[in-house]
Every structure is written in C-alpha cells, then in structure tokens.
Amino acid sequence: MAEASLGQIFLATVLTNNFVLAMFLGLCPFLGVSGKLNTAAPMGAATTFVMLVASLCAYGLNWLVTTFHLEFLRLISYIVVIASAVQLVEMVLKKYSPALFRALGIYLPLITTNCAVLGVALFQTARDYSFLQAVVFAVGGGVGFTLALVLMAGLRERLHLASVPDTVQGTALALMLAGLLSLAFMGFAGLGAGE
Amino acid sequence: MALPGQQELTHLEEFMEGVWKQNPVFVMVLGMCPTLAVSVSAVNALAMGLATTFVLLGSTLLVSLMRKAVPKEVRIATYIVIIATFVTVVDYLIAAISLELYEALGAFIQLIVVNCIILGRAEAHASKNPPLRAATNALGMGLGFCIGLFALGAVREILGAGKLFGVALFGPDFQPWVVMVLPPGGFFVLGGWLLLFNWLRRRQGGALKPAEGHVHG
Known about the structure:
The complex is a heterodimer. Helix content of chain A is about 70%, strand content about 0%. By secondary structure, chain A is mainly alpha-helical. The longest helix of chain A is centred in the N-terminal third of the chain and has 31 residues, at about 35-65. Chain A is globular. Chain B is mainly alpha-helical. Chain B contains 8 helices and 2 strands, in the order αααααααββα. Chain B has helices at about 10-20, 30-40, 40-65, 75-95, 100-105, 115-125, 130-160, 185-205; strands at about 165, 165-170. Chain B has a two-stranded antiparallel ribbon. In chain B, α3 (about 40-65) runs antiparallel to α7, α4 (about 75-95) packs across α5 and α7 crosses α8 (about 185-205). The interface of A and B includes residues 26, 32, 167 and 182 of A.
C-alpha cells in the first residue's frame, strides 16, 4: 500500500475509512463531547493537532527503534512520547494562547487516552507509510474525526427537541445515531480506491 | 468501586461486581473502541476479551503491589508504562500462538493500552486495595468484558454471517444480514443491548436512572 497517492490516503481516512465511523477509534470523545456544536469543533481541531504531533513523533521513533532493533519497545515508547507531547502542547498553548487553552479545558489532557491518536501512530507503522504519507494520514484522520464529531453534535442538538421514550435515552440512542451515520458514510466506499 | 465509608465487599461480591453489577460493557460502557472493532465474530471477540483480561489482571496486580512505592504525581505515567508492558507481552504471545488471529485483531491488540477499563481499574481500584482483592476485582471485570464482547460478537456473527464459531447455523438458504458485520452493525447491536439493559433495569427498579454516565473509549 506504500504506493497509494497522497490524495487517496487523505480521502480514504476522511471518508471511506473514517476513524470514528468505520474503524471505531476515538469513540470516547465522540460520544462524550458531541453533545454541543460549539465544543465539538474545538475538540476536533485539538485532536487533529495532537494527531499530527503524534504522527511526527511516531515516525521518528519508529526509525529509532528499528535502527537499534528494539521493536519490543515500540508501543511503550509511542505511548510515553504521545503523553509527553500532549503535555508539551498544553504548556505551549497555555503560554502563548491562553484563550484557546481555556476554550479547550479538560479535553486537551484527555486526548492522550484517545485511541485515535495512538491508532494513527500504530497504523502508519503497520502500513509502512513514508514521511509525507504519514503526515497526510494524520491530518486526514483528524479532519475525519472532526467531521464525524460535528455531524454527530448537529444531530444530537436536534434530538434535544424531539420527544424520545425514556428507555431509549442516553448512550443507547447515541449509539443508534452513530450507526446511522456510519451507514451513511458507507456510501462513500470506493472513493479512495487505493484501499 | 471502593468509596470511603462503603462497606467492605466479600471476595465473591468483589468478583461479581465486574461480571454483573458494574459490567464494563453494558453498564459502564467503557472500552468501546476495541469492543466494537473486533466483535465481528465470536472467536475474535473472545480472543480480545481474554487478551484484555490478561493485561487487566497483570497490571492491576503490579499496580496494587507497588501502590505504596509510587509517588502520587507520577502515578498515571507509571500505570501507563506498566500497562504498555503487559500489552507488549500479550501482543507477542498472540503472534506466537496464532498468526491468523494476530492478523484478524491487527493493531487493536496494541490499542488495549488505551482501553479505559484498564487504566480506570488501576486508578480507581488497584491503587487503593491489596493485591488479592485487586486481582479478584480485575478477574471479575475481565470476565464481564469477555461476556459483553461475546454477546456482541455472537449476535453480529449470527445475524451477519449466519454462523457461530464458523459453524453455519441456518442451512444454505439463509440470506446473511451483511450490515451487521460491517461497522454500522457494531453500533446497532451495542445500542440494542444497551436498550435491553435499560429496559430490564427500568422494569426491576421502577425509577432507577438509565445507564447514562461515564462514556469512555
């Protein structure tokens, strides 16, 4: 799959293989933060940024571990580096853009445990992406995540106005909605033909 | 969860806590990413459940043994490193036992690291309880997770492929409901199970609150 063009990778990660709706990565923030539109969008942006950072770090780390034949340390080093990267991003944001920092609040540190971020790092390693491919993959994943989050938030805001039986309320309903969204996204299958 | 002032649970109760009352899949809705991603067939689901149980047991035991030695400030980082170590062990173990299974589960074995059930147990239970108690609780949670995964995987395999454990159930005329093994099916089946549990709880306890609350991946 190393020959897949950059455009194909981007389309595939945003639409056909959307991280949330097709690969089930990052469901926690997807269901947790998608209640309102105005938190969904910044969350998506922050996650995209962290994904990009994680992808860059993972690329370097992977080179390092394979050069020194320490493959068994790959996972451990990834997770530690991602955690520290998130911490770093947090500190930089706090210093240079306090407004944005406050807007993101608790979501920023929580990104560490977002499986989509670790997923980006692991999948790009598994698929042997080149540096440029990895960057596109990370950005595509982030955009796809944001798209799913924003769509879901829009749906759920509408749902607040509907009268739903009590039993269905809550997570069960959110999952059904996600299923419908996922069904809709399956219509994109075949677009990023490289997959 | 051991809240201060709560009565000490017996070991059996501690075990059953995870299996039924606080089932990680159906009640707490934790660790959903691996739950949905690998539950296309009963075998995959069970393998994932067992792998997670192993990591859960190993890491809670270690966390519990080290609970007095780890400074509060670096505890989460320590937990994550412990968990990642066990996940690496499981990763190599599955590759050694069955390459076929290893390929079917793919990156999701390594993604056990960010399964919130494990970090949640380490933080909420193992760091406050002696090893035996922590292990019992972890085993119960693991079993509960296996049951949840199996319930999901079995339904999806039966509806989506007409099989269970690869054995055809309905004869040649069965038209498989393919969407069930595709991603949307995962959402639908889990949603359906949650509905069932909501409904059961409602019938039992009248005005008990629904399984809303912490949704984590």
